[in-house]
Amino acid sequence: MSVTQAPPSRFTRLLLTGAAGGLGRQLRPRLKRYCDTLRLSDIAPLEPAHTATGEEIMPCALEDAEAIFQLVAGVQAIVHMGGVSTEQPWAQILPANIVGVVNLYEAARKHGVKRVVFASSNHVMGFWRQNQVVDALSPPRPDGFYGLSKAFGEDVAQMYWDRWGIETVSVRIGSSFPEPKDRRMLSTWLSYDDLERLVVAALTAPVVGHTILYGTSDNCSSWYDNRLARHIGFRPLDSADPYRAAVESRQPSLDLQDPAVIYQGGAFVKAAPQA
Fold first, then answer.
1. Which residue in 4, 34, 157, 161 is deepest, having the highest Cβ count within 10 Å?
2. 176: in domain
3. What would the pLDDT profile of 168-212 be if each residue is shown by its tens digit?
4. Which residues are catalytic?
5. 3-class secondary structure, 137
6. Contact in structure between 148 and 125 (CB atoms under 8 Å)
7. 26: left (phi over 0), alpha (psi -120 to 50) or beta
8. Is 139 inside a domain boundary?
9. 154 is in which domain, residue-wise?
């Protein structure tokens, strides 16, 4: 494991994968403020690059090792939002979320990239109950193939830190939308502004090793304990609490026998994985 210098507060070139996805589209204009050039990648169509503001587009599939090797060339850090982001049959999860994450870290190793922000998921912990609080040392309990693939990605990040000194913040993202949609999201909600604060903190913290961080705003009700990630310096400024009354009026009662209410993974625990 090598000793690395603290990352800069402004990067020459950042890579954002999954740039056409819901959170990728939010991060695209926000990350420009922190780099000279923002390289964008996805397999879905992307809006044309704004070259005047330092964008460049390199579409490629995560399972294409050679294309990923070219994609990572010349970048200082990676914000990896790419991959399948919902519960799907294993055949759809495997290429991007399993093969793809190894391809990305191998490219990072070969090109000397030393910092990755990895979009993991709360679904790594989906079969913990909603009356329990988990932290970074709580054993994973994935709620499906999607959560399992994110647990695998975290293990890949750990191995590449232990063997090759590539630092990663694995962000177990909760529910990032304009506002909470239901009572579960009163605990899992992450505002877009707090998402930006989180990613920037993960990119610029002096030393991270491999850190697991739960990606939520400062919600009064929460199942997640981030005390083991305080060194990252992420301080959420938003909260789901101002939305509580409206959410509870739309959803005044809950079925306490419903697995989606019992377990932290919500509806994902009822989606039948298909091999």
1. 157
2. yes
3. 999 999 999 999 999 999 999 999 999 999 999 999 999 999 999
4. 146
5. coil
6. no
7. alpha
8. yes
9. 11-270
